[in-house]
Amino acid sequence: MKIKEQIKQLVPASLLHHVQMFKASQKFDRASKIDKDRYLKNAAVIFPEDDEETIKAALLFHTHAIEKGLSHPNFRPNFGHTALASLASLSSKYVASGYSVDAFEFQNYLSVLKAYKERHEHLNISTPYFDKLFRHVGYRNATDMAGVSTISRDSSECRKINYLDLMQCRHSVREYSDEKVLKSQIESAASCLPLTPSVCNRQPWKVTTMMDSEKISTILKLQGGFKGYNLPPALSIISTSDASFRGIDERNEPYVEGGLVLMSYLLGLTAENLASCTLNMMLDQERMNEIRKVYQLPESETMIALVAIGHFKESYYIAKSKRRDPADVCNFLE
Ligand SMILES: Cc1cc2nc3c(=O)[nH]c(=O)nc-3n(C[C@H](O)[C@H](O)[C@H](O)COP(=O)(O)O)c2cc1C
Questions:
Q1: What residues flank ligand 1, with Cβ below 6 Å?
Q2: Domain boundary among 119, 134, 149
Q3: Which atom of ligand 1 is nearest the CA belonging to 259?
Q4: Are 240 and 203 in contact (CB under 8 A)?
């Protein structure tokens, strides 16, 4: 018996438990500190935002606040002073810094100004506060990308779509045919990603796909959860940008957004008839850093999960992964 095992047998169980918990707690603190430092460095923890990514994220955030006001059942004329003031100062800073006015976030901001003004004009309501802030901004020719759209119970096509069918077609498939996966197939599968719900419409997601077999092999060795299978033709990583988040209370949101977009991607791949398997990122810092390097992801990206992708083989076994009864998951309170 090894010395360590012998000592373990001599030490009282309760003391051993305390020692093990103490060591686990220290390890937890070290890992948390790494996460904390990365978040503090990359998120908009202290306002006002001062770099391109955090300004863009804030533009999106405040634009959405105005959109929500425009969709509100009890329209309040001249609503949104705080969001409008923030948009005014952020956009000035953005333009003064020479960032691209063609960027999605900037165009979206211009568009919401147009929607705001037009709604008030339609109702014959003057907007002195808005005019003071945006008199010199050319929002009149903006697109209609922001604002509100109408849906109704009758016009909704969604009732005809059976979501369960798609969910039941998806399985974790770990072996693939030799056929190459084309970039266009990945793009097609990913076309549903921007439809994923996102807090304040921030859309912090990114999917980066590796097609090089040597690099795929390196990443899978580091990940360690795909042993015994042939290399998949493609390996994506889902990540979310910390720059989209604000303040300390949002620190876990990159993971929530990441989980949602991961599910969208898996369903998109299923709809594209591609086989896939999610692979976890429950790894120590060293391995995480190595994987980050291979994917060339900046430090501001939180890495959520890998997805192995390939074409289906003729037929094979997959693990059943039996699910609980829906009644066990669904609770009601009186
Ligand atoms: C976040 C996440 C991480 C996973 N990591 C791994 C992994 O590292 N290796 C693996 O073989 N399967 C992995 N899986 C696949 C699960 O084992 C699989 O989803 C589960 O057994 C249910 O089976 P199904 O996907 O076929 O419905 C992962 C799944 C999720 C959602």
A1: 171-172, 174, 225-226, 277-280, 305, 321
A2: 134
A3: 1
A4: no
